Amino acid sequence: MIRLERVTKMYRTSTRPALDRVSVEVGKGEFVFLIGPSGSGKSTFLRLLLREDVPTRGKIWVTDLDVAKLPRRKVPRLRQRIGVVFQDFRLLPNKTVGENVAFALEVIGKSPSTIRKVVPEVLELVGLEGKADRMPHELSGGEQQRVAIARAFVNRPLVLLADEPTGNLDPDTSQDIMLLLERINRTGTTVVMATHDHSIVDSMRRRVVELDMGRVVRDEAHAVYGVGR
Amino acid sequence: MRTDFVVREVATGLRRNVTMTAAMVLTTAISLLMVGTGLLAVKTIDATEAIYSDRLEIRVALTQDVSTADTDCTQPICAGLRSTLENSPLVAGVTYENQQEAYERFQELFAGQSVAELARPQSLPATLRVKLVDQDGSTEAGAAAVKQAMENQVGVRTVIDQRDVVAKLFDFLGGVRNVTFALALVQAVAALMLISNTVQVSAYTRRTEVGVMRLVGATRWYTQLPFLVEAVITGVVGAVLAGVGLLVGKVAFIDSLLAGIAQNGVIPPVTLADVLTVSAYLVPIGAVIAGITGYVTLRLYVKV
Ligand SMILES: Nc1ncnc2c1ncn2[C@@H]1O[C@H](COP(=O)(O)OP(=O)(O)O)[C@@H](O)[C@H]1O
Ligand SMILES: [Mg+2]
């Protein structure tokens, strides 16, 4: 589903590579934690998958798309196969919960009838039934992240990328969000989640890819965050 | 493409910053108004030139003695000059105006003024009026040939090329046109920068939306079209205002300013049809320029 082959990313303003010869393969339906201290290259990893940036060297495949070589006009095709959520939710503040989710479908040209059907479904899936008409500022952080997940998932992407989705949330709420991501993973969606939250990683016992200074220092199934950290 | 989506986004975009939108519309309107004025000036100048190039003649004024002695150009000196002229392939026709006719025309021209009373038929020269053949829109060669043939001939006092006189008027009109176009250009640059700036601001205020659109895989059309449509609407509204401005300008100023001379056929009037034609040109010009500016701005400055 996702394959990186000796991917190196050098930012022009920095001497040390943000990613250094990273090779990782993620199969369909897998759940992978991408861990490592701040600045280790987790966000860069996800940005490259989304073609927000291109690698300096190496190859990246997402499904059958050669991401680095993808022509600009085909980038939307890639992004429609990937859902993303961030630490800061990125909801549109002047749209309701329902409109926020519908917006993601509208801008890729889905018909109003489809939108009317699938938006309530996905809101129910994320546990926000009955809150479609709320504004984002009327929701708790955990609820806002659920809206963001609903928006990322509403088009049924093959891959869900999450960049520290629990970074702004308290531990209990974080656990709820993890349960939701697990549920999404069980529908067959590949999930890659960047985090440096020990307790979440330890409680889930999933595959862990650990980055340090842009290098993969560990890639282990059913792992914990690490000893002595 | 969902049109309701674009319509909604454009409406919010235009409403979001009303002062900016208004400034953009006005600057565009003013620059297009100047372009329109320039185009009308060109049209008028061309029409004027057409009128005059028909009428313009070379006048060969005859000396005092020949003028007095010969009333119908039958005596040898005048007849000789005349046949020389008529034999030239560059000359379309020659007419003779004797002192009496010259006097009558002079009276008509200066009717009511004191010079008219002072003039006497015998103080005015008789003239051979030479019409030139138009060669590829120019009578330049003919004029030069006639001047060369006539100057310093016995019986010739001076050779007057009317085109020299009118050339000054055309120079002046041409200057007006150039100044108008120069101002229009400066205005247009200002309008372009304003449109470009507004598109940037617009894109900046909508960066969250655009960011979401990109992430969920919206195509460039979806992310950019609202901005382009906004810019084009501005251009079109500006052009329509410019058209209204031209119309008002015609009715309020040009008509009264040119009333006298236009009626006399000195210069052609600026017609309503002219103004409407030019206004109709301004709309696509405004739309295309604004659209291109918006597109280039998005390409250069905005990651969408
Ligand atoms: N846009 C950028 N320009 C320059 N350097 C960057 C940019 N983004 C990230 N970096 C650098 O790349 C390295 C990895 O950053 P990042 O991928 O954000 O790490 P993480 O998400 O693990 O904290 C850091 O050293 C960071 O300073
Ligand atoms: Mg990060």
TrEMBL record, chain A:
Single GO BP term = cell division
What compartments host this protein? Cell membrane
Q: Which residue intervals define the domain ABC transporter in the entry?
A: 2-227
Q: Which GO molecular function annotation, any one, does this entry have? A: ATP hydrolysis activity
A GO cellular component annotated for this chain's UniProt record is: plasma membrane
Name the InterPro entries for this protein: AAA+_ATPase, ABC_transporter-like_ATP-bd, ABC_transporter-like_CS, ABC_transpr_LolD-like, Cell_div_FtsE, P-loop_NTPase
Q: Which PROSITE patterns match?
A: ABC_TRANSPORTER_1 (PS00211), ABC_TRANSPORTER_2 (PS50893)
| Keywords (A to Z) from UniProt | ATP-binding, Cell cycle, Cell division, Cell membrane, Membrane, Nucleotide-binding
- Which membrane topology term applies here? Peripheral membrane protein
Q: What does this protein do?
A: Part of the ABC transporter FtsEX involved in cellular division. Has ATPase activity.
Mind telling me which PANTHER family this protein's record contains? CELL DIVISION ATP-BINDING PROTEIN FTSE, IMPORT ATP-BINDING PROTEIN
Family that this chain belongs to: Belongs to the ABC transporter superfamily.
Quaternary structure note: Homodimer. Forms a membrane-associated complex with FtsX.
UniProt-recorded name of the protein: Cell division ATP-binding protein FtsE
According to its UniProt entry, this protein's organism is: Pseudonocardia halophobica
TrEMBL record, chain B:
Q: Which residues cross the membrane?
A: 21-42, 179-204, 225-248, 278-302
Which InterPro entries does its entry note? ABC3_permease_C (IPR003838), FtsX (IPR004513), FtsX_actino (IPR047929), FtsX_ECD (IPR040690)
Name where it's found: Cell membrane
Membrane topology value: Multi-pass membrane protein
GO biological process: any one? cell division
Keyword DNA-binding: yes or no?
no
Q: Pinpoint the ABC3 transporter permease C-terminal domain residues.
A: 182-292
Q: Which residues form a coiled coil?
A: none
| Primary location recorded for the protein, binned into one broad class | membrane
Q: Which Pfam families match?
A: FtsX (PF02687), FtsX_ECD (PF18075)
* UniProt keywords, alphabetically: Cell cycle, Cell division, Cell membrane, Membrane, Transmembrane, Transmembrane helix
Mind telling me which GO cellular component terms the entry cites?
plasma membrane
Does the record bear Transmembrane in its keywords? yes
Can you give the residue ranges of the FtsX extracellular domain?
57-159
Summarize the subunit comment. Answer: Forms a membrane-associated complex with FtsE.
The task this protein performs is described as: Part of the ABC transporter FtsEX involved in cellular division.
Q: Which family does it belong to?
A: Belongs to the ABC-4 integral membrane protein family. FtsX subfamily.
Q: What is this protein called?
A: Cell division protein FtsX
Which organism is this protein's natural source?
Pseudonocardia halophobica
